[in-house]
Automatic annotation (TrEMBL):
Residues 134-153 are annotated as: Disordered. PANTHER family: REGULATOR OF CHROMOSOME CONDENSATION. It comes from Dichotomopilus funicola. Gene3D superfamilies: Regulator of chromosome condensation 1/beta-lactamase-inhibitor protein II (2.130.10.30). GO terms for cellular component: cytoplasm. The lineage of its organism: Eukaryota, Fungi, Dikarya, Ascomycota, Pezizomycotina. Residues 141-153 have a biased composition (Low complexity). This is E3 ubiquitin-protein ligase HERC2. PROSITE patterns: RCC1_3. It comes from the Eukaryota. RCC repeats lie at residues 119-176, 177-246, 247-303.
Amino acid sequence: MVLYATGFNAWNQLGFDVPGVGESDDFSSFTCVLRDEVEIVRPFLSYTRVHDGHETIHQYPSIHHLLSHISDISHTSQPNFLLNAPKAQNKPPTTFPNLPNITHLLAHDTGFAALSSTGQVYTWGDERYTACLGREPTDESPASTPTPLSSLSDLPTGPITKIAAGGYVLAALTAGNDLYIWGHSGRFPFLGADVLSGTPCPVIITGTGTDTTDDVPRGENEGDEEEKDIIDVAVGNSHILVLTTDGEVFVIGQNGNGQLGVPGVVESTRRWIRVDLDSVLGVGEVVTGVVAGPRSSFLVVEKLEQ
């Protein structure tokens, strides 16, 4: 497998061991940074961890190796508990024993989201940011209590199979490849009110994007109005990546550190832009997954047999 990265690189956290990729300047476009078996990518603000599914852990910069002893609750298999900094607050962890079998747990700037084995999405967090909850808190289901989102149940294209979160925005994918997004505009608004609200809303992406602004070139797919099926989604602090069933990658949001991987977008875009993968990938390479750090983005790529 091959790992491509773009975006924030102040600590050389995207450098890895690829010759010629060692400077701490931000990356403005997707660049190959690692050739190895890539099973799990964990990007943080100042370091990146990549697991091969066995014993190997690539972590850059190496000064952050000490952080490898800190539990990562992002994709734990038994997350029916919430770590609330017990050492700092001198309190034990908060437990939620009534949650069903949870397969995916995420933290974002104002709360948490969890996905059950049956495709039910639960949210809880800061009551001041109810839009991030995707629901209105009640006396029976306060903001601080994990509560299922009824709006993501019995969807036309099946149950939720993946959730993603970053900053003040959350996203969910259905078994039938539909994308839903909700949240708060936060400090860096990058989604319009018609897309981002306090209730999960379906998002339609076509080859021409979802906006009519002319801040960036539309590319070769200008006349493509076909609705895209989404198989993967990743959310950073203020940007989103999606991967379509036909292997295309679309991005939206802030690009101040190059996290969109689209050099023509100087600061940000409010419409979905297709990444020009032809100028990025090698012969026979296809994208199989997308990952977002706070201000960086990654493509997990496989090389097809020739």
